[in-house]
C-alpha cells in the first residue's frame, strides 16, 4: 500500500484497526502523517519510510505500535510526533535516513532484535527495551539513550 500526502492526517487507524498481510506499507511523499487512536491499533506489515513521515498515537499512553520491520530510506525522516509520543518498534529496524522527535518529550522505543543505523538518530529519548543487536556506522545524537534494566545490547 502506497501512502501519498493529502490534506491533514493521511492515515488514521481507529480503535481495533490492524494493518496486516504480506505487503509493505510505504510512504513516498514528504508530509505524511500516520495516526493511531487507541492502544488496540497496530501495524504488523513492514513499514518503509520513503517520504518524510510523522507517526503518533493520540490516546494515552501515546505509543505508536509497529510490529513489522521498519526501514527509513536515505535522506528521509521518521518523526515521533511532539507531545510525549513514543514510536514503539517491535520488529527489526534499518535506518538509512533520520529517526527524529518532535520535541524533548518524544521517544523511540526499540523492542526488536536487530537495529541497523547508517543514518542519524536524533529523537530526544531513545530506549532499548529488549536485547538488540546494533550495527552500522550512523550517528547517534539523542539527548538520552537508555537501556532498560536487564537488557543486553550487542554492538557489531
Short summary:
With 156 residues, the protein is mainly beta. The chain has one domain (2-146).
Largest sheet, order of strands side by side? 1-4-7-10-13-16-19-22
* Content of β-strand: over 45%
- SSE string, helix = H, strand = E? EEEEEEEEEEEEEEEEEEEEEE
| Total beta-strand segments | 22
Number of domains: 1
Please give the largest β-sheet. 8 strands, parallel
The SS-based structural class is mainly beta
The radius of gyration is 14 Å
Account of the protein in words:
The protein is mainly beta and 156 residues long. The chain has one domain. 0% of the residues lie in helices and 48% in strands. It is built from no helices and 22 strands. It has strands at 2-3, 11-13, 18-19, 25-27, 32-36, 42-43, 47-49, 53-57, 63-66, 70-72, 77-80, 86-89, 93-95, 98-101, 107-110, 114-117, 120-122, 125-128, 132-135, 139-140, 144-147, 153-155. The strands form four sheets. Strands 1-4-7-10-13-16-19-22 form an eight-stranded parallel beta sheet, with no helix packed on it. The chain is globular and about 40 Å long. The chain starts with a strand and ends with a strand. 38% of the residues are buried. The mean pLDDT is 94.
List the keywords.
156 residues; seven-stranded parallel sheet; 22 strands; 0% helix
Secondary-structure blueprint:
Layout: E1 2-3, E2 11-13, E3 18-19, E4 25-27, E5 32-36, E6 42-43, E7 47-49, E8 53-57, E9 63-66, E10 70-72, E11 77-80, E12 86-89, E13 93-95, E14 98-101, E15 107-110, E16 114-117, E17 120-122, E18 125-128, E19 132-135, E20 139-140, E21 144-147, E22 153-155
Amino acid at each position: 500500500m502506497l501512502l501519498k500526502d493529502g490534506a491533514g492526517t493521511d492515515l488514521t487507524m481507529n480503535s481495533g484497526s490492524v494493518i496486516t498481510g504480506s505487503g509493505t506499507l510505504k510512504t513516498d511523499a514528504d508530509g505524511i502523517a500516520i495516526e493511531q487512536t487507541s492502544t488496540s491499533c497496530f501495524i504488523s506489515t513492514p513499514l518503509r519510510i520513503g517520504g518524510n513521515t510523522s507517526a503518533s498515537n493520540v490516546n494515552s499512553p501515546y505509543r505508536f505500535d509497529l510490529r513489522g520491520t521498519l526501514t527509513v530510506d536515505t535522506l528521509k525522516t521518521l518523526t515521533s510526533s511532539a507531545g510525549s509520543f513514543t514510536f514503539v518498534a517491535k520488529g527489526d529496524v534499518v535506518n538509512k535516513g533520520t529517526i527524529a522527535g518532535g520535541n524533548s518529550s518524544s521517544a523511540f522505543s526499540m523492542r526488536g532484535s536487530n537495529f541497523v543505523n547508517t543514518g542519524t538518530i536524533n529523537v530526544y529519548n531513545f530506549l532499548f527495551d529488549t536485547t538488540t543487536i546494533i550495527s552500522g556506522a550512523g550517528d547517534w545524537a539523542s539527548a538520552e539513550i537508555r537501556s532498560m534494566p536487564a537488557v543486553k545490547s550487542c554492538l557489531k
